[in-house]
Write a structure and sequence with these properties.
The protein has 324 residues and is α/β, with parallel strands linked by helices. It has 2 domains: 16-177 and 252-323, 3-Layer(aba) Sandwich (Rossmann fold), CATH 3.40.50.1820; 179-250, no CATH class. The chain is built from 11 helices and 8 strands. Strands 1-2-4-3-5-6-7-8 form an 8-stranded mixed beta sheet, with helices on both faces. Strand 5, helix 5 and strand 6 (167-173) form a beta-alpha-beta unit. The longest helix has 21 residues, at 190-210. The radius of gyration is 19 Å and the shape is globular. The two termini are 15 Å apart.
């Protein structure tokens, strides 16, 4: 299919919240599949000693059309529903898949003493280089969702300085472009604020249990907004003094993506309840970066039928097959 093919959800599935909720609903990924049965755990260590975990689902090399790295969103994991369903679809269509966990996501809090921050890019880029080497000369692709989409776009931009020769295309679904604005939106919406706060606080407690000599989050955990919790943590556990400085470190507005050197597709929706659509319209993109903004889709949703299949899965196959 073409990236320009319209996304039109059926009646009953058009709402942004139902689309967003279905994106992460566990029952959509509740069945067994070879992509998971054959997955091999891998832990990469960067030059700085950071360790990141992922799961590699290989195919016979003569049968593989390419290898796709999937990057989850904030407080998601390699086992998030949208990652699992995408992995399943790609594997069924002949692609190997690697599902990477960002630091302190999934069951990886024990791997590193330091906390996760969205500005920690180099470790993700080095992990991407390691994953690319698993492609054995086949085409390599990166697809990210939400915060993972932000990382995917930064990877596409970074290839100007550090080339990944196998990388053929990058796809970002509902990418966070302005983490500061996204945080404001989440904090204003009780459902999403409570959802993310619960997951983040649980993650911090896990980190504190593992490293009680380093962390005491008792004060921080009393906050009831993402912004306040962020502001509490930054001066004590990061090089940043305040949220504006921190968020600016991975904001991708205006011409921040104008120098991308690998073909890139950005998939967004006007009704995203977390990412303001104005962020996408502010982008100044070059000729190899395509932006598609659908009227519907929610955040990471794009559920296109009552079988709860995602439109972007077919779009990825259409994009990747041209390179494969």
């Amino acid at each position: 299919m073409s990236l320009q093919e319209p996304f039109l959800p059926p009646p009953g599935l058009k709402g942004p919240n139902i689309q967003t909720i279905l994106a992460s609903s566990r029952f959509r990924a509740a069945r067994a599949h070879p992509v998971f049965d054959n997955a091999r755990e891998k832990i990469f260590e960067t030059k700085e000693g950071v360790r990141l975990q992922g799961f590699y689902s290989p195919r016979p090399q003569q049968d593989a059309k390419g290898l796709v790295l999937l990057l989850h969103g904030w407080e998601g994991s390699a086992r998030s529903t949208y990652i699992l369903t995408t992995a399943r679809y790609l594997f069924d269509h002949g692609y190997e898949v690697f599902r990477l966990n960002l630091r302190d996501h999934g069951d990886t809090h024990h791997l590193n003493r330091g906390l996760f921050f969205g500005t920690l890019f180099d470790e993700v880029f080095e992990a991407t280089e390691h994953v690319a080497n698993l492609s054995h000369g086949n085409p390599f692709f990166v697809a990210g969702f939400s915060l993972g989409g932000n990382y995917a776009l930064r990877i596409a931009r970074e290839t100007v300085r550090r080339s990944i020769s196998q990388l053929c295309h990058v796809v970002a679904v509902s990418p966070v472009l302005s983490p500061g604005r996204a945080t404001e939106v989440i904090d204003k919406t009780v459902f999403y604020r409570n959802y993310f706060l619960k997951k983040w606080k649980r993650s911090l407690l896990r980190k504190q249990q593992l490293y009680p000599d380093l962390y005491d989050f008792s004060q921080a955990l009393s906050h009831n907004t993402i912004l306040d919790l962020t502001a509490d943590l930054l001066p004590r556990y990061s090089p940043y003094k305040e949220p504006e400085e921190y968020f600016g470190g991975y904001t991708l507005l205006d011409d921040e993506l104008s120098a991308i050197s690998v073909p890139t597709a950005i998939i967004a929706s006007k009704d995203d309840p977390i990412i303001p659509v104005e962020d996408f319209y502010s982008l100044r993109l070059n000729e190899i970066t395509r932006l598609v903004v659908h009227p519907f889709g929610g955040h990471n949703g794009f559920i296109e039928n009552y079988r709860l299949c995602a439109w972007y899965e077919r779009a990825m196959i259409g994009i990747f097959s041209k390179e494969a």
